[in-house]
Amino acid sequence: MNIFTCPVCSEMLYKEGKSYICPKRHTFDIAKSGYVNLLISKQVGKTVHGDNKLMVKARRDFLEKGYYGKLLAALSETVAEYAENGSIILDSGCGEGYYTKGVYSHLKENSIEADFYGVDISKTALEYASKLFKEAHFAVGSVFHLPIADKCCDIVMTLFAPFCREEFLRVLKESGIFIMVIPSEKHLWGLKKAVYDTPYLNEVKDYAIDGFELIKSRKIAYEINIDNNEDIQNLFSMTPYYYRTGKIQQERLAALNELETEIEFEILVYSAKEN
Ligand SMILES: [Zn+2]
Question: Do 12 and 126 touch, CB atoms closer than 8 A?
């Protein structure tokens, strides 16, 4: 089964050879690495084209070292509580697929065969994702116009990616599960202390989301030690602070060869309310 839809006319897409085709014959070729580009220009704002090559590589390199392994383990356990054989799981803003693949592997070890889909606006990220996780279906697309059929997902998960309530509600089945990971107050506190004169705590928003019922939350908090500048720089480039850092901060960062920092996340689980 396929759940991708045509970005031009919203009809279902069908796989034909190396392309996805809709009934009106709009055709989208599958890239060599395995993803399909379902992003059309009118869906993209003037500015954002997703993470660039350097950022994607930095994140992949950092995650591969396992610093966020505990988060992945907790997320995987959480998804496993709700997934069943045949569940359709969408990772919205999946990036290079670290969590998508990790969750899949955990489910498989527990004899749950789910069908994974990933959407991200960055082609570069999906190049990595499709090589890492060949069993999944990846599409370049916008989270604000998910190229996904209505009411077909059992679970939607999103980690540090743009949030679009209406789209998540649209693609989830009735009473479908929505899982979101957000940074907590002291996430990366050690890193911020090392870089800024007056670091501030992360602002944690209200958990309530219209149309969803919060059914569970789980906090993940631990410390990591990083003993080299490359990993520290990679971590920094994954943060929103990366975009608003002056010369002094960059110099401090460049001189940092050791870092101990708090890692703090919250995994929030919601159920889509029936309308
Ligand atoms: Zn079409």
Answer: no
How confident is the model over 108-133, as pLDDT tens digits? 999 999 999 999 999 999 999 999 99
Specify whether domain 47-272 bears CATH 3.40.50.150.
yes
CA of 23 to the centre of ligand 1 (A): 6
Instruction: Tell whether the torsion through CA atoms of 164, 22, 96 and 252 is positive or negative.
Output: negative
Q: How far is the CA of 125 from the centre of ligand 1 (A)?
A: 25
Distance 124 CA to ligand 1 centre (A): 25
What span, in angstroms and rounded, lies between the C-alpha atoms of 60 and 62?
A: 5
Cβ–Cβ under 8 Å, residues 43 and 235: no
State the pTM of this model.
0.94
Residues of the chain above pLDDT 90, percent:
84
Kindly list the domain boundaries of the chain, sorted by start residue: 47-272
Distance 136 CA to ligand 1 centre (A): 22
- What is the Å distance from ligand 1's center to 22 Cα? 5
157, two tokens: 């998960």
Per the CB < 8 A criterion, the answer to whether 65 and 257 are in contact is no
Hey, which residues does 145 pair with through a beta bridge? 142
**Per residue in 205-232, is it b (16+ CB within 10 Å) or e — as a string?**
eeeebeebeeeeeeebeeebebeeeebb
The model's confidence at residue 275, banded by pLDDT at 50, 70 and 90, is: low
Residue that the structure tokens 């396929």 belong to: 2
